[in-house]
Amino acid sequence: MSHQDLAIVILAAGKGTRLKSSLAKVLHRAGGRTLVEHIVRACHPLKARKTLVIIGHQAEEVAAVVEPLGATTLLQQPQNGTGHAMQIAKRALGRAKYAIVLPGDAPLVRTETLKALAAVHRNGNAAATILSAVLADPSGYGRVVRKSETMVSAIVEESQLSGEQREINEINSAIYCFTLEKLWPALAQVKPNNLHRELYLTDAIAVLNARGETVLAQVAPDPREVLGCNTRADLAEVDRIFREWKRNALMDAGVTIQLPETVLIDPDVTVGEDTIIEPCVQLLGNTKIGARCTIRTGSVLTDAILGDDVKVEPYCVVAESRLDDRVIIGPFSRLRPNNHLKDDVRIGNFVELKKSTIGEGTKAMHLTYLGDAKIGKKSNIGAGTITCNYDGFHKYPTTIGDKVFIGSDTALVAPVRVGDGAYVAAGSTITENVPADGLGIARSRQVNKPGWASQKRRELAAADKPKRKTRKSEPRKKARKARKRR
Ligand code: UD1
Ligand code: CA
After folding, report:
1. Which of these, 28, 98, 119, 370, has the minimum number of CB atoms within 10 Å of its CB?
2. Quick check: pTM over 0.85?
């Protein structure tokens, strides 16, 4: 089958009533992507002449997902069944000889399986080839009724199964390859003979068989590949399988994952060799992690770029930030978007960063907020340092040079600069620039008053005495009241 003969049709117009959701079924996510996106991507390597997606429910939103991936959309309004959806595609299919048809809700199907399906179809000179699967629990699926070892006579929907057909555990995946010139006349004969008064594409199989055409069924090598997502439980199961496949691929590539079933990794994430991922970690979006890193328990990284030998201690949250080689963060660090931590930076517990660049070897170890800050190399940011970057209207930058020492509990009121090699005294509120190699000190001078505390204690004790006298003379109840008031 030359690629120019082949088209893809993805049926994605349905609502997904069984999910009980305001979101169209194919826009639900599993394995880090919408269901329909998984399917378009699985079809991509088949290099078909066109990929049609039949849309209906939340058509605009579905189109916004699939059109950027190169698919063409066609509107099915109203949705009168899978057979009707296929009729909508007819004109747009043009000169394609074959079509692979897939539902929008079975996202686990692999490209290799689709290639094999197409090959079986071509080699068998079939009118239709069904991708089937053998399931221990076939309930909810249409069943494949065979008339011989190789040939199929019909697909029977669950609602229409006869007593003995209930025993069949070979199910219809709703993924097929059709020879289009044979499909169209058969589809024209299909009647809406069901409770929902819909045209079922599955009914075209019996018609093809009655017309003496060849209908084959190819059993999927892994039955999990054909799982459809009709319910929330189905979605959870499909998500679990995607996550498992992703973790297995990373482990095969040399990544250690502890208690793997607790770790969630999105499909586009990459991780280098000998990196260790501890339990309950989430690696999301376009996160890229280098070699020999350690991502400790409870950390969530979204669109993070990590160099080599980076250590993320427990319970860090990182978004859209770059951590270069040998950076250490956490435990309990929070990196909001747009930070760049250069080599050997150390960020400690309860430190929050936003839109900040931290130079090589600089440390901010405790209880600090750095926002819109640019900090040079080998500087030390003391505990409790705060960049006051926002005046309620605008954000302002803080610039700190190389080898700067910021004393603990400093407030840096931006815009402000601290020059190379400068010191800022602990407890300062810095509102003006500090020159290079200078000291910025901005706090009131301390006054010590010798003996003040013991004198105060004596005064207080003396003031207390007369009260105790009166209490003795008063009835007990009154005394208790007086104590309470104090
Ligand atoms: C379908 C098959 C069933 C198979 C199962 C596998 C039919 C009649 N039945 O059942 O044999 O075992 O898939 O998962 O095909 N859609 C449209 N337009 C419509 C109706 C549906 O585009 O008018 C789309 C849906 O969005 C969905 C797909 O077709 O993506 C399948 O529809 P769904 O309602 O999920 O069919 P099932 O009942 O699961
Ligand atoms: Ca389905």
Report:
1. 119
2. yes
